[in-house]
Amino acid sequence: MPKEFACALTHVRHEDVFLEKWIAHYGAIVGRENLHVVIDGDDWEPTIDLTGIRTEVLLDAPRRRIQNDRFIAKQMSGRANTLRKRYEHVIRGDCDEYVVIDPEAGLDWPEALAELGEDGYVFALGVDVVQGPDETASVDPTQPILGQRRQGFVADGYSKPFVISRWANWAGGAHRLLNRNVRMSAHFTLFHMALCDRTIAKARMEARGGTAQHPSFVDHQTLRLNAIADAGPAPLDYAEARAIGLSQFPVEADGTPATRPRKSTDPRATDKGLPVIIPDRFFGLV
């Protein structure tokens, strides 16, 4: 029996705003009936409509960050590899991450996924979207975020292996695949939206327990919130930043292949990545 084209898989904890976006985005690509949502914990319930979506509740996830990342990586890898028996491609990512095809490529999803080839995986170039200092209005979640938010960082940390067509296992945080080198896509871009709106980010942290969470989560979430703080350095041209990321993220300092994306050595890079203004061609896609 031939495999179905593709499915999308995510896990979620206190994420109604981004989960609703995730469902709309990937439902349009693979069909709502091919969405798989793993709900982290039985101490909360999503308030959005999950009709027609395959859901399950995952219990016993540890609440320390490193242990949680490893646990979730193992659990989601197992599910992705099982789904791969039914689908040609399994898209896997956090529900605040949305992969798009760069409109300049002129490709549809079946054409773009042919890039995986025999290797069976690819990394999307990551853009960490932030609320800029001049973007004072809150995001309207019923409308596309790109366009409401125009600033971001081309980031090694969010350049992630988002899809597989062969057996593979993600490592903690899904930033790499075990025993696989980085293969950057020529046309896929991953927009990470956790910091697109300070109000949403703060509400998300509070819903997860605020400062009552394990300190490893509090410290990480507070550090990320502080990334919205100021104007930062002057942005690079997006095409230049993209070219730097595609050439530098996949290699170690000595030029050998990297097993996870490495930071840019460009002197204009910050700890968050290469600052950019997101081109208009992406507006409305997420």
Low-pLDDT segments, ≥5 res: none
Helix content: 25-40%
Distance between the termini: 34 Å
- Major sheet, described briefly? 9 strands, mixed
How many domains? The number is: 1
What overall form do the CA principal axes indicate?
globular
Report the C-alpha radius of gyration, rounded: 18 Å
Number of strands: 9
Beta content: 15-25%
Count, helices: 6
List the helices and strands and how they pair.
Elements (H helix, E strand, L loop, with lengths): L3 E9 L3 H15 L4 E6 L13 E5 L6 H19 L3 E6 L4 E5 L7 H5 L7 E10 L20 E14 L19 E12 L2 H10 L7 H12 L11 H11 L25 E4 L9
Parallel strand pairs: 1-2, 1-4, 2-3, 6-8
Antiparallel strand pairs: 4-7, 5-8, 6-7, 7-9
Describe the structure.
This protein is of the alpha/beta class and 286 residues long. The chain has one domain (4-282). It is built from six helices and nine strands, in the order βαββαββαβββαααβ. Strands 1, 2, 3, 4, 5, 6, 7, 8 and 9 form a nine-stranded mixed sheet that branches. The mean pLDDT is 90. Residues 250-271 are annotated as: Disordered. This is Glycosyl transferase family 2.
Give a brief rundown of this model.
The protein is of the alpha/beta class and 286 residues long. It has 6 helices and 9 strands.
Keywords for this entry:
9 strands, alpha/beta, 286 residues, single chain, nine-stranded mixed β-sheet, Glycosyl transferase family 2
